[in-house]
Write the structure tokens for this entry.
Amino acid sequence: MKVMPVKITPVRITHVVENLERGGLERVVVDLAGMQYRDGHDCEVVCLFGAGALASELRKQGIAVHACGKRAGLDLRALRRLRSLLAARRRGVIHTHNATAHYHAAFALFGLKPDRLVNTRHGMGAADPGSRRERLYRLSMPLTHRVAAVCEAARDRFLAHGLHPRSGIEVVRNGIQVERFRPASVAARRQLASELGLPEGTRLIGTVGRLNVVKDQASLIQALLRMEPVSDDVALVIVGDGPLRGELERCARDAGIAARVRFLGDRSDVDRLLAGLDVFALPSRSEGYSIALLEAAASALPVVATDVGGSREIVHHGVTGELVPPGDVGALAASLSRVLNDERASAGMRAAGRRWAMREASLQSMARRYMDFYGYTQPGEHQLDVLCG
């Protein structure tokens, strides 16, 4: 017998997104397209609106990123641009992300019969299943081959609302570049506290996300006031930007704790910031399969998160962190106090979260799951040796 290499058959894959600004969905698309390209596939990304801040990461790797420049309302010029780009790529996989990008792509492709038009819903869907966006999304289902939800909770919700594409809905969980995230350490915490102008020894609670109503950072600011025992050596680090930044800054000032709350805005060094925290908090009112929680686990951080969407599929209560009801500031404060002050329990959570992330949350495993989802069963590595007689 001799050993023969089995190489991956290149697949043409086109990702369609609204844009590539900083965010969890956009991070997934950039990482996934990069991994697929490195695995030998022919990848491009089409943005419905502008390209966005993360587009340069793909272009540096040699992956083309196109922007349709869509304006508000019905924009036929952008739709024609989208149709032209997708027509040239229809002999392969067209993978759209979330509802708006999907129904625009589906309607742009009408009559062109693409090989595979698939979609990922990255959250729990709209609060109102009867909204215009969701109605247009449903109208695109007869043209859609497969839909992926990012967690079991999201799939159950979509099915309950009667969403039935041709081949049903599968769960394909998100993954991250786990190797980018190093475990949190005392040295990193000291350095971060110093950078933020905080006294040495300050304990840091951090969160990462867009500053909007859904992420509910306001509850986290209120929880800081109600933690027991009340301590001036605890500070809150908020990473991200958004429409509520001014309101949240006023909230901290009005509560008299502005000196203990740091707003860092959008950052490209989230991995370094996470390594300097003591606890990660995510007080969201809704989540799909949170990239922020995956990154916190990979950074060996104990987590306190609200029990919404797919968060319980990441945070294992009492093992890697604690889950609390959404909007319950008292419960959030109590959990943060327990995790922050019980060093033995938090050490166990750190180790368990890191082990889980290394095993379950890698980018490589997500890329393999998506190739299966597309209908291409291929080796999980760049090359696999098999025995041939």
Summary: Residues 81 and 181 are 38 Å apart (CA to CA). The chain has two domains: 8-175+362-383, 180-360.
